[in-house]
Write a structure and sequence with these properties.
The chain folds into 2 domains: 125 residues; 116 residues, Trna Endonuclease, Chain: A, domain 1. It has 13 helices and 10 strands. The strands form 3 sheets. A 5-stranded mixed sheet has the order 4-5-6-8-10, with helices on both faces. The chain has a 3-stranded antiparallel sheet with strand order 1-3-2. Strands 7-9 form a two-stranded parallel ribbon. The longest helix is centred in the first third of the chain and has 15 residues.
């Protein structure tokens, strides 16, 4: 199993367009990547192949970022602040041959500008991919009990009350519990914290659900890694209590939004209005 078995960026571009069409013209990054993997016939192992040793990023996700970037650069797709990607009318109308030329077109555009093209530079939730990587690396280096305390604080800052870390061995992977109040209704929630670099599979979700049945209203699994497609399907399987999943990227965004260990500096931009000055 090697990265050569994963489609190249050039090959992923038309597959990404087809995936968006299959999804009704728009989708989240997770939905698009899952559909592209399905259309490409990629196994869970190939999808989870690390981008480089020690990286929490995957080769597949990296190439997919480039594919979406190229589509955006030629106006075939666009994304919103919430990370939802959609085909534009131009993208829907592009022929198979035109899609094959997308990468060459963008490279030609790059040759005419001094600004280099970087993957998803304008994609809000991924444009700071470097800080995500650094933060995940720090989280992975934390001691297990420290990571559990961090997750406990995230839940408290997110509105949970009575958040306790139990961490009992042989308890089905349950690390703690808390109460989430939504207006007039309260939910008892059990959570699990997985400080993993690798992907979290469906068996983890099944075991956790088995341990929480009859003890809580909802379950939540937080990890520094990624959830496999099968794990996400298992989390929302019909007839079974739903388990909410927070992967490494989601966790980074939560820490950023809550201001826990992440600071955001806003750069002041000054623009001179020559028209106003000339009118004085």
């Amino acid at each position: 199993m090697t990265e050569t078995e994963i489609p190249s960026v050039h090959e992923l571009i038309p597959i990404t367009v087809q995936a968006l069409k299959n999804l009704g013209g728009s989708g989240s990054i997770e939905e698009i990547d899952d559909e592209v993997a399905r259309l490409s016939g990629l196994s869970e192992d190939l999808v989870g192949l690390p981008y480089k040793p020690g990286s929490s990023d995957t080769q597949f996700a990296y190439r997919q970022r480039w594919a979406r970037t190229y589509l955006k650069k030629v106006g075939a797709a666009d994304n919103t602040v919430r990370g939802i990607w959609a085909l534009t009318p131009e993208g829907r109308a592009m022929s198979e041959q035109a899609l094959k030329e997308v990468r060459r077109t963008v490279q030609s555009m790059r040759a005419k500008t001094t600004h280099p093209v970087t993957p998803e530079l304008e994609e809000v939730e991924v444009d700071s991919h470097n800080w995500n990587e650094k933060l995940l690396s720090l989280l992975l280096s934390m001691k297990p009990d420290a990571f559990e305390r961090l997750c406990q604080r995230v839940l408290r800052e997110s509105g949970f009350t009575k958040v306790e870390v139990t961490g009992k061995s042989g308890d089905g992977g349950i690390d703690g519990n808390g109460v989430l109040r939504v207006k007039l209704v309260s939910f008892q929630v059990l959570f699990q914290c997985k400080r993993w670099k690798d992907s979290v599979g469906s068996s983890v979700v099944r075991d956790f659900r088995g341990a929480m049945v009859g003890r809580a209203d909802k379950g939540l699994i937080m990890t520094t890694g990624r959830f496999t497609t099968e794990a996400r399907r298992e989390a929302t399987r019909d007839g079974a209590p739903a388990v909410d999943l927070i992967d490494g990227e989601d966790l980074c965004q939560l820490l950023k939004e809550l201001g826990i260990g992440v600071k955001v500096r806003h750069v002041e931009e000054v623009e001179i209005d020559e028209v106003v000055l000339a009118a004085i």
